Structure prediction request, 332 residues.
Amino acid sequence: MNAQQIVLNARPEGMPSKSDFSMIDAELPAIKAGEFLVKNLWMSVDPYMRGRMIDRESYIAPFALGEVLEGGAIGEIIESNHADFPVGAKVNSMNGWRSHYITDGRDHTLLPQTPLCESHFLGVLGMPGMTAWTGLNRIAELKQGETLFVSAASGAVGSVVCQLGLLMGAKVIASVGSDEKAEALSAMGVEQVINYKTTANLSAALSAAAPQGVDVYFENVGGEHLAAALDNMNDHGRIAVCGMISQYNDTAPTQGPSNLAYIIMKKLKIEGFIVSEHWQHYGEFSQQMGQWLASGQVKAEQTIYEGLEQAPAAFIGLFEGKNRGKMVVKLA
Prediction:
């Protein structure tokens, strides 16, 4: 049978464009003993993928030109010669950016029976949700009554950080890039939301929203947001560094904030983290998150593009602010 696949044509310079990607057809062989055939139903696009499009050493290998891209995906087994992976079962893998594939099941996880939408295992019950939970609980150690500032607060990670912060008894201040996104977070119970695109001075806006100062900053953006957070952090504040999306498409080194001395003066703790290094705690996270979702205490927002051919547009949309919650592509 034929499988549709998306490959990387060229390494983007600055903002990625659709011409950096191509969709090709590939003939799949018959499955062998110990293998099964998967039809992908959903795939994820995530900001970290931009880093893998650069040919440089990092915590994960770069994508190769002309090769099929990779990313989180949920698929259904439609043919199987593997006793542990029966036909009809749903699996979680890193074999996104393709319609079908054959595998021996290594690095695949069977999805549990659940009334929840399967795509949530790419979002609030997957890597983004786990990132939010890890950053607040294991990195920043947020405490009840503290003030939490969240950048990119309407994104896949940030929207979960805001909701978990509220559940943990914190005062939550969020930064987003549109009034629509601000209204959505306010409806979730976030007390103060700043539209940074219409704010002349982000540091002053944060000071007005948090006159008592900021105890924990969940960093998704970098640049001006990091500088504003440093201005307003309380002594012994903690910064969990998850991402710096404002810099991912830069073509030259970005100048750092001019107020880094506050790290010393305020005795701040700043720690970057990669969620895969904390995956041994996924069981604890998924049990808690499943309960919060079932009770309605956490809501899972998604932005859905339809069709594999729309995957590049969905990916580019991450850097254009087109998503609320998790950006996913529905393949079938």
